[in-house]
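hey so i finally got around to running the thing on that chain from the lab meeting. sorry it took forever, my laptop kept dying and i had to restart like 3 times. anyway pasting the input first so we r on the same page abt which one it is
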Amino acid sequence: MDKFPVRWQGAVRFQKRIQLGRVMRLNLSRRAVSLSVGVRGLRVNISRRGIWITLGVPGSGWSYRGGFAWGWKRNTNNFRDSIQEELNDEHSKSNE
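ok and heres what got predicted. didnt touch it at all, straight out
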């Protein structure tokens, strides 16, 4: 048994955003493609995992994210992980 059960976990990620006009973005990652529509402070993201809305106060670091998830029905952990991954992706996008 380990004396210290905490281990480092990490991953290499790939993300690319292609601007499609003033309010649309095509988001590419290793696993998925999604479309974001909106302006700074208000964005709607449509992907294979669901529809997500992000409301934020630009420049403050404060934001709220909610939406409708679908997909991954086989295992509760996979569903939870997919939502967490989607939240992490959107959080990194809003910090640009």
